[in-house]
TrEMBL record:
<keyword id="KW-0235">DNA replication</keyword>
<dbReference type="GO" id="GO:0006260">
    <property type="term" value="P:DNA replication"/>
</dbReference>
<dbReference type="Pfam" id="PF13191">
    <property type="entry name" value="AAA_16"/>
</dbReference>
<dbReference type="InterPro" id="IPR055237">
    <property type="entry name" value="Cdc6_lid"/>
</dbReference>
<keyword id="KW-0067">ATP-binding</keyword>
<feature type="domain" description="AAA+ ATPase">
    <location>
        <begin position="39"/>
        <end position="173"/>
    </location>
</feature>
<dbReference type="InterPro" id="IPR041664">
    <property type="entry name" value="AAA_16"/>
</dbReference>
<dbReference type="GO" id="GO:0005524">
    <property type="term" value="F:ATP binding"/>
</dbReference>
<dbReference type="InterPro" id="IPR050311">
    <property type="entry name" value="ORC1/CDC6"/>
</dbReference>
<dbReference type="InterPro" id="IPR014277">
    <property type="entry name" value="Orc1/Cdc6_arc"/>
</dbReference>
<dbReference type="InterPro" id="IPR027417">
    <property type="entry name" value="P-loop_NTPase"/>
</dbReference>
<dbReference type="InterPro" id="IPR003593">
    <property type="entry name" value="AAA+_ATPase"/>
</dbReference>
<keyword id="KW-0547">Nucleotide-binding</keyword>
<protein>
    <submittedName>
        <fullName>Orc1/cdc6 family replication initiation protein</fullName>
    </submittedName>
</protein>
<dbReference type="Pfam" id="PF22703">
    <property type="entry name" value="Cdc6_lid"/>
</dbReference>
Length: 334
């Protein structure tokens, strides 16, 4: 049944991105100066998880490479490369050898100096989940490097800007802002139809089955694609020619769990401690949560940073915030 398993991965970048024409036009316009060998203004992409921000940004850069002979580019997942050193190291990998860089002994400022001396082709940098960076000053440093153009991806603009230095906020005032909304059910069905056509046997699943997956995904393409993949694997394992409604029904909770588990696996050490404390207590008030957190880590972050972490966990449906004020509590998502 599965003809090309790559198509069923949510990280797959298709040859065409549907239902995001306005967003694509806005990002293409923002990056247009690069085609003239000029640095472009920073582009800011905001929206919920699974709304196509990452896919569209990588697709746009791929298209840009078709019209620009000399272009350097790099994608950085700030969930994984959340420290200043890791982020700079990932960018250096795009412009030259890094065999002489050692995590334990090479000063971070040396990495920045190498980037500052870069004089090659225009360098487009995608920083995904940019609000995960522990040290946001790296954004100010990158902004000041003439050949670098940044595409910054985050969930919510207020939470990102609340953490940034006033100097950077001022400079980003004229940045292009592109906002994404959750996919509608018919849009998700269309996205899934493309994945079926490219990756599965013809007739592997009917439209009703895809509509059921889309409805369960609640606007999140990542969840929808994961559910489809799980259902297809079940059908292939059972040796059936089609994905049945029962397979779809069973794949839905498994797909949601798989996406949630992936998010948990990506948590930074401090976010993971917060997640584990909420898991241990079932339901816990913010003050008690911070006290338990401070007791578990050697270098506790500020209360404000912890609130930002909890907001991120809630945005990815890992925790639920209930109540307001003194009655507020946190619990794990059911």
């Amino acid at each position: 049944m599965i003809q090309d398993a790559r198509i069923l991965q949510d990280e797959f970048i298709p040859s065409e991105v549907g239902h995001r024409d306005e967003e694509m036009d806005a990002l293409t316009h923002a990056l247009a100066p690069v085609t003239r060998d000029e640095p472009a203004e920073t582009a800011l992409l905001f929206g919920p998880s699974g709304a196509g921000k990452t896919c569209l940004s990588r697709f746009a850069v791929d298209r840009l490479r078709e019209s620009v002979i000399d272009l350097t580019h790099q994608y950085v997942n700030c969930w994984q490369d959340y420290t200043r050193f890791r982020a700079l190291y990932r960018l250096l990998e795009a412009i030259g050898p890094t065999y002489d860089v050692h995590r334990q002994s090479t000063p971070t400022d040396e990495l920045l100096e190498r980037l500052e001396s870069y004089d090659g082709p225009p360098f487009v940098v995608i920083l995904d989940e940019v609000d995960q960076l522990e040290d946001e000053s790296v954004l100010y440093d990158l902004y000041r490097i003439p050949r670098i153009t940044m595409v910054l991806i985050a969930n919510r603009e207020p939470e990102l800007f609340a953490r940034l230095d006033e100097r950077l906020v001022s400079r980003l005032h004229g940045a292009t802002r592109i906002r994404f909304e959750k996919y509608a059910i018919d849009e998700l069905v269309s996205i899934l139809e493309d994945r079926v056509r490219w990756g599965l046997d013809e007739g592997a699943i009917d439209r009703d089955g895809l509509a059921r997956i889309a409805d369960a995904a609640a606007g999140d393409a990542r969840v929808a694609i994961t559910v489809l993949r799980n259902a297809a694997r079940r059908a292939e394992r059972d040796g059936t020619a089609t994905i049945t409604s029962t397979m779809v029904k069973e794949a839905i909770p498994a797909g949601r769990t798989a996406v949630q588990r992936k998010h948990v696996d990506q948590l930074t050490p401090h976010q993971r401690v917060l997640y584990e404390i909420v898991d241990d207590h079932g339901s816990i008030a913010p003050g008690d949560l911070y006290e338990a957190y401070a007791a578990r880590v050697d270098d506790p972050k500020t209360d404000r940073t912890v609130r930002n972490h909890l907001s991120k966990l809630a945005h990815y449906n890992l925790v639920v915030k209930e109540g307001d004020g003194r009655g507020r509590t946190y619990r794990l998502q059911d």
